[in-house]
Structure formats: structure tokens, C-alpha cells
Amino acid sequence: MPIFNNYKHVFTPIKVGRTVLKNRIEFAPMVCDFTNCLGEATQNYVDFVESQAESGVALIHLGATPVNWEHAVDYPSELDVTNELKINSLGLLAEAAHRHGAKLSVELVHAGRGVHPRYLKGEWGLSASSIPVPGSYPYIKEMDQKDIDKVINDYVDCTKRLERCGFDGVLIHGAHGNLIAQFLSPMTNHRHDIYGGSFENRCRFPLMLLKAVREAVRPDFIVELRISGDEILPEGMRIDEVIEFLKLAQEYIDLVTISAGLIVDPRAQFYCMPPYFRPRGANVPYARAVKQCPDIHIPVSVVGGIDVDMAEKIIAEGSADMVAIARGLLADPDMIKKCYRGKSEEVRPCLRCWGCAGNYASHVQCAVNPALGRTGRYAKVQKAEEKKKVVVIGGGVAGCQAAQTLVKRGHEVILFEKSSTLGGHLNDINKLPFKEDLLRYTNWLINTTMKCGADIRLNTEATVENVMAENPDAVVVATGSIPARPPIPGIDNPKVVNVLDADSGRKKISGKVVVCGGGSSGCESGLALAMQGCDVTIVDMIPVSEFASDMMDLTRKNLFHLLNEYKVKLLGERLVRSINDQGVVVERKDWEYETLEADYVVEALGMKSNNELAEKFKELLPDVYVVGDADEVKNIKRANLTAYDYCCNI
């Protein structure tokens, strides 16, 4: 009999308090936006929780859930656990988790000074001290004893309600600069009463809250705490004080999860939920310090870009007892099962792009898993009623997604790719030093598409003649995009290098570099060149405040932090007029011209759809679908979504 499970630690049970969890993996909390306008769980939410439970995790945490709706809310579309009239939907969530042997918990939060005025009922936000977040809502009131008593009662009330609705625990959010952390941290607690000043006083409110929650529920109800091992900013909490606090708090909690950073402060937000610029497992050293403290006796979990292989190593080396994973399980809900069965190479990698974070107007989605959060015919690929012959033109992201989806539908699929490999432009941009996640995804995409059952024809350029010779029922055009190359005088100068040639390393660049284009590709290319020792300037006609505006907010903040660290100069509101042997001639807002000296110029002035073939086929066939960049140049997420959606309907 073959041995499937090569993981000796991560899949073993663990006792947390008085509850035995079936393995060492938690589904880390994230808001999914599947509530209605009343904060009730929709059927989408129930389905989403059930899919989380199906993944095989031991414990699921529903993301940031406010303990009151007056001043605790930190995000729209959060679940309402404060109202007896809304308990029906809560019970359905618990039932969905338990059907697959998972335990269910809720991350209870109070935003404190991080509250946004659009969610605030009243004029004032509450915090340990009257210290607003820099550049944010200024009307913050220092909590008095009445406020403190009410907030503690709110936590207790919500916890007891969740227990009655069949939940197995709560996760008290004391990390990322939320209210509990605002009392603990010397950076935000400047009080002069029994709740401020000394370390003992700063711990008083958090300990009172944890004690009240613990005493309000049955002994086997899990009380977990999330805390930042380091708040990153000056005067913030450091790991030594975190350990001292946990020595006291462990009397009231069953498990602690270690994170880092401050979500309520833009200077440290990207440490909380690290994007691809930051290393995976960055919080492990903090967790290790807690775990190896001889005076701490509760289990320790850690979060931050972790996969199953990393989890096994972390637990084996004694850095933590458990791990919390969210994005990796969104990218591939079958990650745990694949690893358990010895097929870790089949796991669809997470890009850590934060495309799953939404945009305040849509539910949770994933750049690489277009089925995430969907219901009905899009939740899983359904077999087609009638088998068809479909030709896919192009083997980039959209083409590969189309081929895989169509094969699962039961169609006969032929894919034409004019180059010698699949992957399209991914093969250029995955060479950047911070694109390890994208490189892993590229390899996965190529391997899974080559094995999916489609007839893959590399080194074959699609023409009307050879496509129509196949007598297809439908054609999917996924021909991608090409550089826009606007008619700038001197753009053909030998010192000008296209961004794809720069990123891929096909052209070697050194010395002074001017990157023309402040979009995400230009900014990332400029950062990579600066990391290699170049003196980099990025210029664009848009203001610097709009550079890389197509990125997710957290990822963008991390990018700008690194651009500053590597001394990349950002010049906005300058129109590129020409390029010559001296460099780039730009026109400023005052209509004056200046020359930016450069040894090399990187042209990152955008891409345009390459869709000429589409119009030709539309004259010959009724079923022609244009997907990905061939339809609209945007990103990996849209390429996968359009290809998946269209192909689910063929």
C-alpha cells in the first residue's frame, strides 16, 4: 500500500483548551462580503463557509466582526452578531461548518481609533487615548469607565450569542492596532489613570475583557487571541512585551495567533497581510519566541503567507503548534487534501496579490481561482449537455484557463500557441526578484494545462485557415496583448528597452535608468532595477499619487515603501516629449522642458489588446468568445474570470 501522508506534524490532532482539533490548520479570518444590508449571512455566505469546511481545516474563523454597530465597525459588509433577531443565519453558518467536521469561530473586533466616519453612528470614535490615525478620522474620544464597561459587555454579549448559535469559539482580535492593541501599546495609550502608563496598567483593560469572555462561556468553548508580535512602528509593542502580556493572558485564552503590523496605520498595514513583496512566513520568528518561552503553556499559531509544506516545517522545528492560512486555501480549496495524498505539486499557488480583498463593492474573489465565492453553475465546472469541438487561440493565462475549463466541461479542445511554451507574458514578468509566487503559478499553469487533456499545439500560429480546417463549433480568442508603443520621437533609440525585455532579462540594463510609465508594471520594473543597483527615475504625466493605482491598496503601499527604501525617484505630471542620446525630454506643468539623463530608458507605456483575429472569426462563426487581455488589458484576475465564465457557458 502506498504511503500518502508524508506530513508527520501538521495533520496530527491537537488539544486546544478542552477541545481536540483534527489537525493543525486554521482558516484565517477574512471578510468575504457575503452579508446583506442588515449584516445577515446570505446563502452565498453559508456556501462559502461550507467550502472552507470541505477544505479539511480544523478550525474556521469568520473575519472581522464588530461587537457593536455604534463605533466598532471597521469594514463594510461585516456580519452582525449583536442582535437576537439575526441568530437564524448564524445557526446556518455553524451547521455548514460542522457538516464537514470543522469547528467554527468568529473574529470579534472593535476598530477603536481605526473607525471610518462612514460607519460611525455618532460624532466620536473611541480609543484608549485621543490619538487619531495619521491622516484619518480626527474625532477620537478617550474611553471613560462607562465606555470600557460597555465594550467589555459587548464582547461578552456577542460571545454568549455565538455559543447559543452553535459556534465553537471566538477569536478576540487584539492585533493590528485594533482597540485592544490600542490599550496595550505605549504608542497609542497615553492615559494617566489605572489603564495607562505602566505595562501593568496597559494590560488591565485587555485582561479584564478576556477574563469576562472566558467566564461567560462553557469550559470547552475556544477563546483565542490574535496579537501582533511586533507593531513595526516606533514606540509600538515589541515581542518582549507581547510575551510578558501573554504570560498573564494565557489564564483566560486557549490559543494565541501571532501576526504583525498595524492595519489602522498606513505605514504598517502591509505587515498585517503581507503581499508578494514580503517573504512568506515573516511572522514565524515572533511565534517562535512565544512558543519557546518556558512560561507560556498554551498552543501558539502563526499566520502570514504559509502553505502546507511551510506549516510542516514550522511545527516540526518547534516554532509554532498550529498555522493559520487564508489566501492559500482560497487559491486552492483542495490544498490540504492534495498534500495529504502526496500531490503537493498539483496545488494551485496563491499569488499573494490581495485580489481576494475586493474593492468595497464586490464579494471575495481570487485571481487564480475563478470559482471562489460563486454559486450555481459557476461554483464548479459542470458537464456540458452537448460535446463540442472548441479551438482556443493563445496559451497565456486566459487561454490556459479556457482550455482547462472546456476540457472539464467535456469538450474536445485544441489550443494553438505560436511560441514554444505556454504562459504568455507571465514568462517575462515572473523573473522579477519579488515574483517568486508568480513563478510558481506560471509553472503550475503550464504543467496543469499541458496535462489537462487538450490538444496543445505549440509553435503553431493560428490563422483563419488552420483554425477553420478543424471545423470548430466555437472559437475562444485569447491572443493577449502587445506593447502600445506610442509615437514618441526617439522611441526606437537603441537605449530604449521595452519593459518586458527589461523584466525578463533579455536586455541587460545598468547605470542611470528612466522608466517611462508609472503604472504597476513600470513601478515594479523600476523597483527591480533599483534592487539590482541602478539609479532609477520613474516618470509619467499622471500625478505620483496615481502611480500604480491599479494595484490593491495594501500591495501598493508595500510597493511605495520599497520604492522609497531603494531611493527610486518618482516624477509625476511630466509628459514625455522625446528620447535622445542624453535621456528623456519631458514637459512639466509649467510648460518648461527638462532632460532626465539616462543610460537606458525603459518603455512601460502600457499594453493594447491583440485581437485582430477575433473580428475575422466573427464573420465565419456565431460562437466566438474574446477573453483576457485580448478583450480588455487588465490583470491576471480578470483574464481568468472572463475565460472561466465564457467557457462555463459553451
Q: Would you kindly provide a brief summary of this structure?
A:
30% of the residues lie in helices and 18% in strands.
Question: What would you note in describing this structure?
Answer:
With 650 residues, the chain is α/β, with parallel strands linked by helices. It is 30% helix and 18% strand. Helix 3 runs parallel beside helix 5 (199-216) and helix 12 packs parallel to helix 20 (636-647). The relative contact order is 0.09. The mean pLDDT is 95.
Structural category: alpha/beta
Pick out the low-confidence regions.
none
Query: Whole-number radius of gyration?
Result: 26 Å
Largest sheet: 8 strands, parallel, barrel
Alpha carbon gap, first and last residue = 41 Å
- The overall pLDDT, averaged over residues, is 95
Q: How many beta-strand runs?
A: 27
Task: Chart the SSEs and their pairings.
Elements: E1 14-16, E2 19-21, E3 25-27, H1 43-54, E4 59-66, H2 87-98, E5 103-109, E6 125-127, E7 140-142, H3 145-164, E8 169-173, H4 179-184, H5 199-216, E9 222-228, H6 239-249, E10 255-259, H7 269-272, H8 284-291, E11 300-303, H9 308-316, E12 322-325, H10 327-331, H11 335-340, E13 389-393, H12 397-409, E14 412-416, H13 426-429, H14 436-450, E15 455-457, H15 464-468, E16 474-477, E17 481-483, E18 496-498, H16 499-504, E19 512-516, H17 520-531, E20 535-539, H18 553-565, E21 569-571, E22 575-579, E23 583-587, E24 593-597, E25 600-603, E26 607-609, H19 612-618, E27 624-626, H20 636-647
Parallel strand pairs: 3-4, 3-12, 4-5, 5-8, 6-7, 8-9, 9-10, 10-11, 11-12, 13-14, 13-16, 14-15, 16-27, 18-25, 19-20, 19-25, 20-21
Antiparallel strand pairs: 1-2, 17-26, 22-23, 23-24
Helix pairs in contact: 1-2, 3-5, 5-6, 12-14, 12-20
